[in-house]
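Hi everyone, sorry if this is the wrong subforum. Our group has a chain we'd like a structural model of before ordering constructs, and none of us has done structure prediction before. Sequence below.
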Amino acid sequence: MEPKSWDMTSSQTPGSGSGTTGSQSSGGVLDQARESTNQILGQARGMTDKVVEQAKTETSRRLSSQIDQASERVDHVSGAIRSVGGQLRENEQTAPIAGYVEMAADQIDRASEYLKGKDLDEIVTEIEAFGRERPMLFVGVAFGIGVLAARFLRSTPVQSAHVPRTGYGSTMDSSQWAA
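Answer:
Right subforum, don't worry. Here is the predicted structure as tokens:
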């Protein structure tokens, strides 16, 4: 009996009596793997979309709650400013200033009323519309808010944990250790 030789052009492998080729069977496996992978990817995309939507909803809910809390705080500030205005009105010398203080309190009340019952999407939409209608004023207001925020942040003391160095290279003397 003569040993079978491998013929590279033949579609059959030696010893296989079936007419299926290696490439045909591996092609079916690859197709199944691709289909399974696409199904898994589709499920993962669906789950990801669901999680993202839940996160957006939760974030929006929390921000709306914080907006309502900010509105209440603004109401308190307005009340305090009105109280100062009343005290200024009682004094002859500061009575003219009281009108300006009360006008400021009125504007703060308007801001508080604006915030009540609004959600984040409504506020963003209205700010965008304002920015399109009056771009120069919008940029000016944004710049002013940025300057105020920067001043606030610079004036806020930084709470750092200052741990005195001891040991080699320390500049502390023994009188500073017993603090």
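For your construct planning: The radius of gyration is 37 Å. Residues 75 and 112 are 6 Å apart (CA to CA).
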